[in-house]
Give the backbone structure.
Amino acid sequence: MESTPLIAFDQHAATTVAAVLLPDQATPALHTLTSDSPTILRFIDRVGRLGPVRCCYEAGPCGFELQRAMTRRGIACDVIAPALIPRRPGDRIKTDRRDAGQLAVLYRAGALTAIHIPSEQEEAARDLLRCREDIRADLLRARHRLSKFLLRHGRRFTATKKAWSKRHDAWLRAETWPLPVLDQTHRGYLRAVEEVLARLRNIEAAYRAEYPHESGRYWREVFVHRESASAPERVRLRRSLENHGL
């Protein structure tokens, strides 16, 4: 890559730092841009007047839209696995400009690992599964709030050891309160649980309807084993797939 102009981007929601490393330079030139794709593409076109360029940026919350926009324009762009970027021991100073500059130097040296770019279908499926996990977290919080409210007033379910079963649900609905305001509080917490449960059932129905024929092996490849997923995300997604029976 030493004969090719390189651009490494450190991308965030509002601004992006572009580090331009030309063939005859050892230190990249840094430029701050707004993060919208048209602005970045115009900047690449200006640098590209010197010849074809290669670009890279670190995988992160801004996703793959920039990479796809470049690909549509015929611009080579790699998305880099963050966990595999070489870092010096004890080097904890991180700024956008420094990160972009280091990324450009490492990219020229061939020291970076590019990740698999998911198809739009794969990414949509990931987002649907992430949405499901977010709703499950909402359900856990709603249930905790209801349980703590009941516990503060000495209400304990003792009929079985398993909470959130049909018997537990019947017990929750049969509880009565000496004060109207407590009854309203109880019903409010219970309604919150019901609403989140309805959202969860809807998203699970959408998941099954959209992906009825894909095998568990396929989804484990899509969600769990891609380099772009962090280790905690891989664990969370693996558990979610197991909950789906995949």
